[in-house]
């Protein structure tokens, strides 16, 4: 009875020792690996209707709804309860940059544009620059070749080779049918 009890205690002690050693190893891992080491990929997301500063400047009081729709596109929000108001909103979300939100609201009196209310909107070139962002360009290779470099790539016909056959096998003029003839 004491032999089995001693064996059971030593197995439990060994398991506890192994568990403690593995946890201690994981604890030292956090000091060498920072929180910024493993980040998931977050794609760039543009949501809503992009409205540029140029589009905003093209709006004039007195324009018809159809003209406003041609310039700005379909509104993101056109409520039945507020039929005199169209809302355009969009946001840009990029990894490592705070989300950027923009809005534009147009008010109508009947079928005519009365007022435009908006945030400071980016121009089209600013918006494209925000999407692309700076890209690091490495050293570009030289796009010139000397005569010696070109001779390396000369056709094989000018070089004399003794180990190659004199001419490739000629291709047949016709091929056999893929399916047997029907009788």
Taking the sheet with the most strands, its summary is: 4 strands, antiparallel
Strand order of the largest sheet: 1-2-3-4
CATH class of the domain at 45-125: Alpha Beta
The helix-strand sequence is HEHHEEEHH
Structural class category: alpha+beta
Percent strand: 15-25%
Determine the fraction of residues in helical runs and give it as a percent range: 25-40%
Unreliable stretches: none
The coarse overall form would be: extended
CATH third-tier fold name of the domain at 45-125: Beta-lactamase Inhibitory Protein, Chain:B, domain 1
Q: Write down the Rg.
A: 36 Å
Overall number of strands: 4
What is the annotated CATH architecture of the domain at 45-125? 2-Layer Sandwich
Word description of this protein:
The protein has helices spanning 2-32, 53-58, 65-72, 124-132, 147-152; strands at 45-48, 85-94, 97-109, 112-118. Strands 1-2-3-4 form a 4-stranded antiparallel sheet. It has a domain at 45-125: 2-Layer Sandwich (Beta-lactamase Inhibitory Protein, Chain:B, domain 1), CATH 3.30.1450.10. It has 5 helices and 4 strands; from the N terminus they run αβααβββαα. The protein has 183 residues and is of the alpha+beta class. The N and C termini lie far apart (91 Å). The protein is extended and about 85 Å long. Helix content is 33%, strand content 19%.
């Amino acid at each position: 009875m004491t032999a089995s009890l001693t064996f059971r205690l030593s197995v439990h002690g060994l398991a506890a020792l192994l568990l403690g050693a593995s946890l201690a190893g994981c604890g030292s891992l956090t000091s060498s690996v920072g929180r910024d080491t493993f980040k998931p990929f977050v794609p760039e997301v543009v949501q809503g209707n992009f409205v540029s500063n140029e589009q905003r400047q093209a709006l004039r009081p007195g324009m018809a709804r159809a003209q406003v729709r041609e310039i700005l596109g379909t509104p993101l929000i056109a409520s039945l309860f507020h039929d005199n108001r169209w809302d355009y909103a969009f946001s840009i979300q990029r990894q490592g940059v705070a989300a950027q939100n923009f809005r534009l609201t147009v008010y109508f009196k009947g079928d005519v544009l009365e007022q435009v209310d908006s945030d400071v909107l980016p121009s089209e070139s600013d918006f494209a620059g925000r999407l692309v962002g700076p890209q690091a360009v490495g050293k570009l290779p030289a796009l010139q070749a000397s005569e010696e470099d070109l001779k390396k790539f000369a056709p094989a016909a000018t070089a004399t080779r003794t180990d190659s056959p004199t001419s490739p096998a000629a291709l047949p003029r016709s091929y056999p049918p893929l399916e047997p003839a029907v009788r």
